[in-house]
Amino acid sequence: MRGLILLAFALLLSRPVFAADCTVISETGLPSFGLKAHVTQVCHTGYAALHDDDLRIPRWVAYRLTSLRTMGCQKVAEEFHAEDALPPGRRAEPSDYSRSGFDRGHQAPVEDFTWNSQEAQDSFSMANTAPQLPGLNREGWERLEQTVRAWAWTRGAVIVFVGPILTPQPPTIGANHVAVPIAFFKIVYDPQSEQAIAFLMPQRYISKGDIGRWITSVADIQERTGITFPLPPGVDIQVKWPLWPADIPGWRHARRQACAAEKQLPQP
Length: 268
Known about the structure:
alpha+beta; 25% helix
């Protein structure tokens, strides 16, 4: 009996904390992963992730971004932390990245959660990070993140799927052997138009220029990752869409106005 109790306790410790049964995306549901791997589903209020417990990075992260949520103004301290839903030894620690030459690359970026301080803090979980070179994370990848916010602002809401591209035996960093991806993908689905645009950026310096050159198809990403994305049957996953128009200056101006107005509100 004592052995059964200990086993049940161990299983409890290894399970993620689920938020609302992980229904963070009601329109589509969550992706499915077809490769053999030791994975754990981690769910926070704002995003869901499928964590690879051997590679110590997420295989995918999924969340819903609305126009209102791109107007967030919360200031959040940059405090990366180990994921509580994963046991030590099966997760990345912030120290794994020290002196590695890689950033702790948010998959779901904190700027998409600054409308709520708790959700913004949750984005600093190591289950939402993967090693990214600074020349990617702070340049071309950041421009892609800004573009997605501009789309959400004008389109009303988008669904985002993001994650790494890996070799069969990826290099690793840190004491916990955190896998280093060779590239990253992002798929943005617009429920209104029923279109999905996909990007794949290699792990190298990419300037904050035209991101259209990194467009690929959803089918290409599915083939590279073993992930099936829950897109409606009407979405053509084979097509490479032209880059959607994005008014980044307009979104920035609207956000500045929203944050300025928020500062004028009486404090409780």
